[in-house]
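FORM 7B: Structural annotation worksheet

SECTION A. Query
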Amino acid sequence: MSGTVRGGVMLAALLAAWPSGRLAAQVSVHIGAGARYGTALIRDSIVVPIELRPSIAPALLLSVRDELRGPWAADATLDITPSGLQRHEAGSSFDAGSVTAVAFSVGLRRTFANGLTGRLAIGGLAYTGSSEGAFRDGSGGLMPLGSVAASYARRGFTIDARYDVHRFITPALRAMRFNNPRPVHRVALTISRRILGTDGAP
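SECTION B. Predicted structure
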């Protein structure tokens, strides 16, 4: 089962598990899109400097949010980023295929004054859709993910500045004696809209 399908199944199960009364009264569903930048997946300089880096790419999000007591809310988010890969070597750049990063996270949000919100989340990320280069022997499975975000919400729309980090390694890299997972930092700017339910935003 692909990472995209697994994430969709988890989100569907989450929606099904919520009692219908809570879904109507306190739970909201949001969709969003934006752009994401990520640091290099691979960096080496044994002979010449080499990097494998994802290009700036669209970020697509679907989240379910449950209002808790006071300023707190819990949420679950499915985050999909299809991106091209660029290999940078000795001052030149080459296309190196494409890959899709699929992340699923659960988090806590806290609303502050004037529609400002902070979010802290943990989850997992998997790469799918590529069988070339570093992914020729598989994607490396599910990688732990940590995420923080700051948001501004108004009239059902939310602007998010998101940051997350995970450690990247694949079987092909291990076979080449890249034994230490590399931290990959990602930042995204997204805008989302509430499509179902209500929340505490102005």
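SECTION C. Observations
The first helix runs from residue 3 to 17. The chain has three helices and ten strands.

SECTION D. Sign-off
Analyst initials: ____
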